[in-house]
Amino acid sequence: MATTRAAQPIVAAGSDQLQADIAAALGTRTTLPPYDEVLRLIDTLKGHLVPLIDQAKEHVDEHRPGDGVWRQAIAGAEFQLRAGPSNGLVSAAHRLQGLARCVLHFHRHLPHDVAGGGE
């Protein structure tokens, strides 16, 4: 099974780069991107997701300690981080899309001051 390289450093969660990475992962295509590109995007999105998960945990502990929906979202995102891309291009592309959806979810639902998109 192929493994991904170390995650790239995170850029500010509200940045144009984060939006570009999500768009690249979720973009409609008639053909799948090359496997190397999928692996690169997986690494990049994992780099975005790690600090968002940490920020979500802090937010939940401080403001929503009994909120099971948030805890379930965090657990799902942690699963996405642990799961490998798989050997097949289609499976790796599905993993990439799952990661992109997690990043997008936290980016949209965390308060902007928590998700790095503050003033």
Total helix count?
A: 4
| Percentage of β-strand residues | under 5%
Terminus-to-terminus distance: 43 Å
Helix share bin:
55-70%
- Briefly note the structural class of the backbone: mainly alpha
Please state the overall shape, judged from the principal axes of the Cα atoms: elongated
* H/E topology pattern: HHHH
**For the residues shown, what is the average pLDDT?**
81
Biggest sheet statistics? none
Round the Cα radius of gyration to an integer and report it: 14 Å
Low-confidence stretches: 1-12
Count the strands? 0
Could you walk me through the main structural features you see in this protein, from its secondary elements to its overall organization?
The protein has 4 helices and no strands. It is an all-alpha fold. Helix 1 crosses helix 2 (35-63), helix 1 runs antiparallel to helix 4 and helix 2 (35-63) packs parallel to helix 4 (89-109). 64% of the residues lie in helices and 0% in strands.
